[in-house]
Amino acid sequence: MCGEKQFSEDRIRNGCRKIAKSRQGSTQGRLDSFFTVTGSLSSKRKEPEVKGPAKKKQKTGATPGKFKKAK
Fold first, then answer.
1. Cβ within 8 Å of residue 7, ≥6 positions away
2. Most buried in the list 9, 26, 48, 49, measured by CB within 10 Å?
3. SS3 for the chain, per residue?
């Protein structure tokens, strides 16, 4: 090809190396095998955690800077 069609020998050699390298690699596996089905969780409900008494929030007055009264 180099003598007849005037192609660069370096480009042909690099292309052949690239093709040979791609043939050696393995193909990408299916995505279905990545996502496997796991066992189901127990059907029993968890017991609710016992928490201490909740603290009440104090009501605050108007928050400054949030809303301004129109004149």
1. 1
2. 9
3. CHHHHCCCHHHHHHHHHHHHHHHHCCCCCCCCCCCCCCCCCCCCCCCCCCCCCCCCCCCCCCCCCCCCCCC
Q: Backbone phi, then psi, for 31, in 5-degree steps?
A: -75, -25
Given this model, what pLDDT does residue 17 score? 94
Distance CA(2)–CA(9), nearest Å, equals: 6
Consecutive 10-residue runs of the chain (71 residues): their mean pLDDT? 83 93 81 72 70 68 65 67
Region of residue 63 (phi > 0: left; psi between -120 and 50: alpha; otherwise: beta): beta
For residue 66, give the amino acid letter: K
